[in-house]
Specification:
Layout (H helix, E strand, L loop, with lengths): L7 E2 L4 E6 L2 E6 L1 H7 L2 E5 L6 E2 L4 E7 L3 E5 L4 E6 L2 H4 L3 H4 L8 E5 L11 H8 L2
Antiparallel strand pairs: 1-2, 2-3, 3-9, 4-6, 5-8, 6-7, 8-9
Length: 126
């Protein structure tokens, strides 16, 4: 199971990577493998500022639909445009081309409340 050391993780299986004042958010390799083939990603919250833990969208897999939870509070800036035509990128490259949203975090201290890679590996039993 791929768990990059440079990311932070939520207990709901989202990851976040801060790049300057913007952060990328997606679902973990563990989450995509549990969901199976992802066929659609829906995010209707662009332009909204949400609290940590709020649902910002959903992913539809062949067998199920799963809510996406924001790991930290912030404004949803953009949805990954590549996912419109290729939602399978979330399965193929969850930490790279398969990112789901860009956000502008409103409380960077919340990053410290997330799991580091070692703690996330323990959570998933990897």
């Amino acid at each position: 199971m791929n768990v990059p050391n440079d990311l932070r993780y939520s207990r709901e299986h989202e990851w976040i990577r801060l790049e300057g004042e913007v952060a990328y958010v997606g679902i973990t390799d563990f989450a995509q493998s549990e969901l199976g083939d992802i066929v659609y990603v829906e995010v209707n919250t662009v332009g909204e500022t949400l609290e940590a833990g709020a649902v910002f969208g959903t992913v539809d897999a062949v067998k199920t639909t799963s809510d996406l939870f924001l790991p930290v509070s912030g404004e949803i800036l953009e949805v990954n445009p590549a996912l419109v035509d290729a939602p399978e990128l979330v399965n193929q490259d969850p930490y790279g081309e398969g990112w789901i949203v860009k956000i502008k975090p409103t409380n960077l201290a919340e990053l410290d409340e997330l799991l580091d890679a070692e703690a996330y590996r323990e959570l998933i039993g990897a």
